[in-house]
Amino acid sequence: MSTTVIERNNAEKGNFSQMKQHSGEAAKISVTDLNLFYGEKQALYNVSLGIQEKKVTALIGPSGCGKSTFLRTLNRMNDLIDGVKITGDIVVDSENIYQSNDVIKLRTKVGMVFQKPNLFPMSIYDNVAYGPRMQGIKNKKELNKIVEESLRGAAIWDEVKDRLKTSALGLSGGQQQRVCIARAIAMKPEIILMDEPTSALDPISTLKVEELITHMKKDYTIVIVTHNMQQAARVSDKTAFFLNGEIIEYDETDHIFSMPQDQRTKDYVTGRFG
């Protein structure tokens, strides 16, 4: 059994209200003084940031800097790892997610798309319908509607509508990743986490996923981990630069890439890091 522990920060409760963006809008996700340990090894150090609703937030930084570890704290995926300890606060819509025992509800609200497509060995239709069925939806007409709406939302309906009953594993890598996005959409999340969703894709498929991300932000809050700085610049509204488990700088994406305030950020985004 994993042993995830969350210890409430003793800072003033006003911290949450201070998690505003430059626009003055309240954050959809507020993270305050987050620390994460794998046993005795600390992986995240005092991470604090506010993630704005219906925007794309990119997490950049070198390999092993804590980007994916941080991303997985937002829907408690780290709970699955033995010996994990977390201190600090993560608040989604005014609810501290580590004080709730309803992890299924959280992961319905906060969907995730992984680095490599992870479709089930079943039809395209059954992949997308899997989550709604697990939620108790059995009506065929309702499932048909959810599947079509989700595949349309992932910009792949026209490519697969005539082969919904064929294996999803027969699709190209880019198509499989968009079906994974459709599967996440089918759960009607408010937030979608993406862990390097295009790293295994060719340039054309990558472009399609990037266009999809840009289109999706009108309906979803998106947090994306990427090693591709050009991708971060293209798709995100805000960018956080991670280094050695810390956030070095977090700002509007244009500012991060054109006028970073920290020399380490400047070195990284200009390719002089290391």
UniProtKB/TrEMBL annotation:
EC category: hydrolase
CDD domains, per the entry: ABC_PstB_phosphate_transporter
SMART domains per record: AAA (SM00382)
Gene3D superfamilies: P-loop containing nucleotide triphosphate hydrolases
Membrane topology: Peripheral membrane protein
GO MF annotations, alphabetized: ATP binding; ATP hydrolysis activity; phosphate transmembrane transporter activity
Assigned keywords, A-Z: ATP-binding, Cell membrane, Hydrolase, Membrane, Nucleotide-binding, Phosphate transport, Translocase, Transport
GO biological process, one term: phosphate ion transmembrane transport
Localisation per UniProt entry: Cell inner membrane
InterPro entries listed in its UniProt record: AAA+_ATPase, ABC_transporter-like_ATP-bd, ABC_transporter-like_CS, P-loop_NTPase, PstB-like
ABC transporter domain residues: 29-269
Entry EC no(s): 3.6.3.27
A GO term from the CC aspect: plasma membrane
Pfam family, one: ABC_tran
Domain of life: Bacteria
Alphabetized NCBIfam families for the sequence: 3a0107s01c2
Function: Part of the ABC transporter complex PstSACB involved in phosphate import. Responsible for energy coupling to the transport system.
Protein name: Phosphate ABC transporter ATP-binding protein
Organism expressing this protein natively: Peribacillus asahii
Lineage of producing organism: Bacteria, Bacillati, Bacillota, Bacilli, Bacillales
